[in-house]
Amino acid sequence: MLSMQNISKMYQTEMVQTHALKDFNLEVDEGEFIAVTGPSGSGKTTFLNIAGMLEPFTGGTYSLDGVDVGSLSDNARADLRNQKIGFIFQGFNLIPDLNLYENVEVPLRYRGIKSAERKRRIESCLEQVGLASRAKHLPQQLSGGQQQRVAIARALAGEPRFLLADEPTGNLDSLMARQVMELLEQINRDGATIIMVTHDPELARRAPRNVQIVDGQMADITLYQRNGVEPMQKIAGA
Amino acid sequence: MFLHYLDLSWRSFKRTPVVSVLMVFAVAVGIGITMTSLSVYHMMSMDPIPEKSDKLFHLQLQTMEGEQTRRGSPDGLPYQMTYQDAVALSNAPIPARKVPSMKAGFSVHMNTPEVKPFIETARMTNRDFFDMFNLSFVHGGPWTLEQQDNATPVVVINEEINNRLFGGANSVGNMIYLDNRSYLVVGVMKQWKLNIKFYDVNNGAFHDAEQLFLPFSLIAPFEIDTWGNTNGWKSEETNTFQQKMRSEDLWIQFWAELNNEQEEREYGEFLMSYMQEQQKSGRFDRDQLEYALRDVLETMDYRGVVSEDNRILVGLSFMFLAVCLANILGLLLAKFLRRAPEVGVRRALGASKTQVFYQHLVEVSLLGLMGGIVGIGISQLGLWGVRLTQDYYTELATMDITMLIAAPAIAITSCVIAGLYPAWLVCGTTPATYLKTQ
Predict the structure, then answer these.
(1) Which of A77, A151, B105, B288 qualifies as a cystine partner to B227, CB 3.0-4.6 A?
(2) Among the partner residues A89, A110, A154, nearest to B355 by beta-carbon distance
């Protein structure tokens, strides 16, 4: 479903070249739940941004659902992103002027979905994250955990096949983090493919496959049983 | 999506009210100044009689002898005509409608102590004048051909004079006094509101139309002299009015109605033969005979009704608008770039660059619309100031429907131009840049 071959990303200033990703390879199958770990600055977020087509890569090939992303125009990438990918950010990234209903509505509007269908999806997604009764509230009237649930509802509303989560529990206390994680697991069980970047080894272990990135390169892949503690298999330097 | 973008624009306006109001004010001031000068220019240059401006022709004859030409005239032709040519041409068989005319003036009174006398301008002309210039009557009508030929002392007054002297009642059949003679009122004309006094621009193109109209044939028996310009080029005795009427002095305007090119051609041929005929009696003593027939718009252009100063003023006011827009561009840049993180989120959620670009253009258009509406208010103040300081700009310093529509249109276009760069900059935002920093 997602295939990255020799992906590299280089940031260049007048003085220095920085390789955020180097010869990065990854294959993701439909329905997988992958946790991406690694130290700060290792390239996790760069990988996620490239996977989500939020920034261009400088080398290699990337195909999503059989579409060669490198050959797409900016508008075509935006369209593909809107159709297939949902994002969950560490900082929630809700739009402060819009209430919960309107926040969840944003990706649907860009997809050109009719008003009645939008309404159905938004209400269903807010129901799914337990916030249907607060649809008219503004984000700042909610707790961090609730805001992240809205962000998840927004990601789900477009019925994406791919969910990219960047430290989705990073700004939450442990209780809230557990609730959000359970929600993500449920979404994965419902069929969505999830790639989650996290610092938290405990959360990472809940994903069946862990990918560790060090210095912009794949360090190893660890396979866990769902919610397992001990690894089933470890492939060093994969 | 357009309504959604409008909604987002209004929310954005409310989110930064001070900056937004500042921008609206900047647009409004620019539009206000621009529309003030543009409105005056528009009224000055607009077609004063669009239904037949291409059929009414001002006639000029080159009567000056030898190599003499009218100083200041673009083609050297005199702007006015001699009395003798005006009479001869108005009695000519063609065209069907043609009128000599001359500005005059009288002391108007009722020969009773109740009505205070007042000075009023008048136009001496023929009865065809009313039909040619599409004038309508409230009571009565033009004098008859018989009254015209017999030089009967009759007068057509306009509504304003009728209100003043007769309290608005039907005054046809009543007598009024002009100087020391009594005249029979034969018609009350509907008020003639003119932006440009195109039929006689010799004494101020923006002066009001005359209030009294009398037969041209009264000039000779009553020795009614002009209140306009008299241009003399020949050294000759003009001590008496009779001498002036026979002289080469230029003091009459002449208009002809020509309905097609054939009539123009035939009238041109007639004029050449008229001048050749006159040459036999010693007049038009020059190698090349010349005449000019210009329609209303050509006449306005030829006489420079809209001066270069007005054009420069309009240009300057647009430059002022450009300065206002430069300021708005700066404010828009600051405002839009501050919103880059939100744009990053929208891009991540599937908004294309084009959609983000349109959203911001709708926002600047809304800004332009509000600036345009406030700008209309400011330009009304400006036009009121112009009317207050310049009496004869009363009809000119106004905004017609074209200008009322043009104001927001210019404001929106200007704002869109100013907003293009900030909108382009913000839509080019790489979404990833801001998602971590939100």
Answers:
(1) B105
(2) A110
Q: CB B314: neighbour CB atoms within 10 A?
A: 19
Q: Which helix (H) or strand (E) holds B10?
A: helix B2-15
Digitized pLDDT (tens) for each residue of chain A, 238 residues in all: 889 999 999 888 777 888 889 888 899 998 999 999 988 888 888 899 999 998 889 999 999 988 999 899 888 988 898 888 988 888 888 998 899 999 999 999 988 899 999 999 999 989 988 889 999 999 999 988 889 889 988 988 888 889 999 888 887 777 878 888 888 888 898 888 999 998 888 888 888 888 989 888 887 677 665 555 555 666 555 4
Enumerate domains of chain A plus CATH numbers: 2-236 (3.40.50.300)
In chain A, what residues touch B351 (CB-CB under 8 Å)? 78, 82, 110
**Residue keyed to tokens 């960047």:** A166
Task: Note whether B103 and B80 are within 8 A (CB).
Answer: no
Q: How far, in whole angstroms, is CA B354 from its chain's centroid?
A: 45
User: What is the rounded average pLDDT of the residues B102-126?
Assistant: 93
Classify A54 in phi/psi space as left (phi over 0), alpha (psi -120 to 50) or beta: alpha
- Round to whole Å and give the CA distance between B188 and B160: 9
Tokens of A194: 């999830």
Q: What is the pLDDT of residues B35-92, one digit of tens each?
A: 999 988 888 888 889 999 999 999 999 998 877 777 778 888 999 999 999 999 999 9
The per-residue pLDDT for B429 is 76
> Mutate which of A95, A102, A154 to test chain B, going by most B C-beta atoms within 10 A?
A95
Cis peptide before A201 (omega within 30 of 0): no
Which structure tokens are listed for B138? 């409230």
For A85-100, give the secondary structure using H, E and C: EEEECCCCCCCCCCCH
Q: By the 8 A CB rule, do A180 and A92 touch?
A: no
CB B400 within 8 A of CB B357: no
Is B352 in Cβ contact with A74 (below 8 Å)?
yes
Distance CA A135, CA A123 (A): 8
* Res B438: pLDDT: 43
The answer to whether B148 touches B219, Cβ cutoff 8 Å, is: no
Domain residue ranges of chain B, discontinuous segments joined by +: 2-47+307-435, 63-289
Measuring CA to CA, which residue among B100, B118, B55, B306 is closest to residue B219? Answer: B100
Q: Which of B345, B352, B438 is opposite residue A78, by nearest beta carbon?
A: B352
Structure-block tokens of residue B343? 């744009």
Q: Residues of A with CB below 8 A from B11's CB?
A: 97
Taking CA atoms, B46 is separated from A177, A216, B390, in Å, by 73, 71, 19
B213 touches B122 (CB < 8 A)? yes
Render A164-189 in DSSP notation, one character per residue. EEESTTTTS-HHHHHHHHHHHHHHHH
State pLDDT tens for residues B248-272: 999 999 999 999 999 999 999 999 9
Write out chain B residues lying below 8 Å of A87, CB-based. 348-349, 435
Of B245, B244, B434, B286, the C-alpha closest to B347 is B434
Question: How high is the ipTM of this complex?
Answer: 0.84
Closest to A195 measured CA to CA, from A162, A151, A219: A162
Distance CA B103, CA B72 (A): 22
| H helices present in B225-350, as ranges | 241-246, 261-280, 296-302, 308-338, 340-348
Contact indicator for A230, A35 with CB cutoff of 8 Å: no
Q: What angle do CA B343, A49, A222 make, to 5 degrees?
A: 150
Q: Are A213 and A42 in contact (CB under 8 A)?
A: yes
Alpha carbon distance A19, A196 (integer Å): 22
